[in-house]
Amino acid sequence: MANKDVPKDMYFLVKIIFFILGLGTLLPWNFFITAFEYFQFRLDTGNTTESSPDGNGTRVQKDEFNFNNWMTLLAQLPLLLFTLLNSFLYQWISDRTRIVGSLVGILTLFIFTAVLVKAEMSPQTFFSITMVTIWLINSFGAVLQGSLFGLLGLLPHNYSSLFLSGQGMAGTFAAVAMLLSLASGADKRTSALGYFITPCVGTFISILCYLALPHLEFARFYLNRSSAQSYELETRAELLLPDEKNGMPNGILDSKEESRPVKEPRKASVFTVMRKIWLLALCIVLTFTATLSMFPAITASVRSDTGEQRWNDFFSPVCCFLIFSVLDWLGRSTTTYILCPGKDSKLLLPLLVSLRFVFVPLFMLCKIPDRHYLPVVFKQDIWFIIFMTIFSFSNGYFVSLTMCLAPKNVLPHESKTTGVLMTFFLALGLSCGAGLSFLFKSLL
């Protein structure tokens, strides 16, 4: 079909929908990691520990459950496993079933989490139930994310940037919701209830947005046209459906078209695609390994050097979660206008990605209570804020850059396989980082 026949994305509705779907995919992760005050409250066993030796006598609750570490690990392992599973599921289960089913599962688990706020139970029982919920909700999230990245491989590359920008906005959305709940002055259970109802609404809106996609001509053009090249179509009749939808009866086809043999859908070889994108896959693994090894398990433990109690309450929500979310979103959004280094970069991109591991010692030398081996070098708040700013922006930029460049290195019929593979390596990086967070915390 000629370019002049490509329909327009009227009112940018498809862009808006994929932005909202990107937001919806990371709502579970972001709403759990930013609710650390609530989880600390529910897991309080009455034990406290002296903060790092700064002379101010501050006492903080001891993290006996290693909640942030376990939450990170049990969120990323199912992401890895179910992303791998999704690479097989998409051959037998339709995109619609996987995406809608995952969103409904996430919505159900968020409702359960909100109900759990008012339930009385021991810290150990609450910890166990929460870990199971995190595992399940991120399993659904993995299938959802992998399925959507597969669809994005069929659309122009700027839609991938908007989707990733929406994922970055999920963190900002969650951080602002947490700040509002803290500022409300309500007790921790009441504020947490309102906090967890918010993603229920967001997930429901995501379901409605996805269901609206088939009714938009621009989305039908790209998704149906590209599907004709993929191996999900099983019969020749399905290849002729787009002509019917455009108002052309099957019987009124040009004789040349009738006599021309219909080509079999070209299958994309996983090994062929891997040879083309392996460097970008390595870059996204390194990016997320560096990020998840520090955030949030280490960075959320950093405390302010000031003695003002009100600022201490807001220090981690603002300087850790809000800064990370906003700068990560800005980094992801930047790739809408700039894609540098380009797809042919063999050295510069891996080098820049690897340099992010310098943040590991920088964060570990910030003011973190309950440390035994390493000294505190960067006591002032400004150092942590500077580190978080660069750390967050570079994460968002390199994640979005690699995900946008990967489809440019393959043939059109390999785009969907590329999306699934890149999502798997994204999950692999997250899992590696989550595992390393235990090691780095033990070295403090």
UniProtKB/TrEMBL annotation:
Pfam families: Nucleoside_tran. One of its GO terms (cellular component) is basolateral plasma membrane. The keyword Transport applies. It is found in: Basolateral cell membrane. Keywords: Membrane, Transmembrane, Transmembrane helix, Transport. GO terms for molecular function: uridine transmembrane transporter activity. GO terms for biological process: adenine transport; guanine transport; hypoxanthine transport; thymine transport. The keyword Membrane applies. Signal peptide: none annotated. Belongs to the SLC29A/ENT transporter (TC 2.A.57) family. This is Equilibrative nucleoside transporter 2. The lineage of its organism: Eukaryota, Metazoa, Chordata, Craniata, Vertebrata.
